Amino acid sequence: MKKVIVIGAGVAGLASAIRLQNEGYQVEIFEKEALPGGKMHRITREGYSFDLGPTIVMMPELYREIFELAGRDADDYIPMQKLNPMYSGYFNNGTEKLEVSNDLVQLIELFEGVSEQDSEGFLRYISDLYSRFNIAKNHFLQRPFRNKRDFYNLDILNQGLKLKTLGNAENTMNKYIKDKRMRDMISFQTLYIGVSPSKSPSLYTIIPMIEFLYGIWFIKGGMYTMAKGMAKLFEELGGVIHYNVSVDEIIVQNQQAVGIKTPYGMFSADYVMCNADFPYAMKHLVQDNDAKGKYTDEKIDRMDYSCSCYVMYLGMDKKYEEIPNVHNFVFSGDLDKNIKQIFDGSTIEDPSLYMYIASKLDPSLAPEGKDGLYVLMPISELKTAQYEWNEETERYYRNKMLAKLEQLPGMSNIRNEIVTETRVTPVDFNNRFNAYNGATFGLQPTLFQSNHLRPQSKAVACDNLYFTGSSTHPGAGVPIVLLSSKIAAGELMLDDQMTGSDRHGSQ
């Protein structure tokens, strides 16, 4: 039985480990935290429970797949319910609210309430993006690019032209939707994967399209239930998770990964699957320069990184009945300026926020009669920021965040209703989760950091070493990261079936 070591019990690490364990490999995960999930972690304070990172469930079939491939009923691990409305958008200092459904009739009524022109534009957007989504799904998102010829061939290049990737998401939305509020609510969602609408390839406008067509779901217990469920399944299959064990180095001999080094000694393996953030791993865990290949320390520093996040987890002394939905977006008065400041590193003057109130659907996540608020502000990553993260910076952004929330219905006294407060900054993402530069979503999915130009699952210059997670192909976001794990496990198993002379790819 071949042994595989997986570094990190994040989403992609757990999913890769389940796939490999289910195929008969002996898999052990080494996780430096005390809980599974990576950024899909949990924070608990005085009876309040919060998801630490991702919160929005899209494409639930990909969540279910990891359990179903092992012959399990996903409902036993991750009971879900569909949300309608999906979320609320608040504009004009909280005085205007738009509720967004994935019911087509309700969506058309929403757009017709703005203008018939925008309603027609919305239907064109759905039609155009759906065809491009199918091309991406069938030809790019679910396949590796092991060799240059896997991308540079007539079929793939023809499909790539159909994707129309040369435009950006912002300009694409301008063609369909004229009302600024509606356009902001759609184009803003490229920040789900940490990239500016003005810089992201136009294809990423498929993110809201997927929501409109397939909906948003909620997992009972919050997103951490997914991480806990995957860890449970992995152990049921016979896998082993070593918690509170950090990995200091991937041991490479003759350009072949043979194990890992930890504070508790060295552990050997036939294969190593790394779920640590790719830039961090290449710079700190792969210490053999030849094994780094083209991903030298200098190249890692030059790459483009996603934005970071400042997140507050607030246990409140009341329930907020005036806010009806679990997911809420609170928009800046000038979103274009807000996004520009995020990505040029300026101090953000008027932020946009995302507020998640999981206790609305699962009261067990807060004490009886109370709510827990997860409030996220997209913010510059550490390298881009033109300011230092210190106590003064944190006080400034905390005040900005609370001032924005005070404008919402029923929240005018929010500062006096806080029972418990926890905050996560870009520094925490950098130090605790090894997110390079504190970039919460890893490498930006720009045109030149996507598909074959993005780090692949199979290491470039080292055998028996594989990578998975948001900085590898196909990219960030939980559903896409689950596809990353599928690709990575498939690449490892393919190599296991091949002779050594056939295994070297060129990238």
Give the structure's gist in a few sentences.
The chain is an alpha/beta fold. It is built from 16 helices and 19 strands.
Describe this entry's structure for a reader.
It is a single chain. Helix content is 34%, strand content 18%. With 507 residues, it is α/β, with parallel strands linked by helices.
Largest sheet: 7 strands, mixed
Per the principal axes of the C-alpha atoms, what is the gross shape?
Answer: globular
The tally of helices reads 16
Strand order of the largest sheet: 7-6-15-16-17-14-18
Structural class: alpha/beta
The residue-averaged pLDDT reads 90
Strand content: 15-25%
Rounded radius of gyration (Å): 22 Å
Q: Fraction of residues in helices?
A: 25-40%
Topology readout:
Elements: E1 3-7, H1 11-22, E2 26-30, E3 42-45, E4 48-51, H2 60-68, E5 80-82, E6 87-91, E7 96-100, H3 104-112, H4 116-141, H5 154-163, H6 169-176, H7 180-187, H8 206-214, E8 217-219, H9 224-236, E9 240-242, E10 249-252, E11 257-262, E12 265-268, E13 271-274, H10 278-285, H11 289-292, H12 297-302, E14 308-316, E15 327-330, H13 335-344, E16 353-356, E17 372-379, H14 391-405, E18 418-424, H15 426-433, E19 465-467, H16 478-496
Parallel strand pairs: 1-2, 1-13, 2-9, 6-15, 13-19
Antiparallel strand pairs: 3-4, 5-8, 6-7, 10-11, 11-12, 14-17, 14-18, 15-16, 16-17
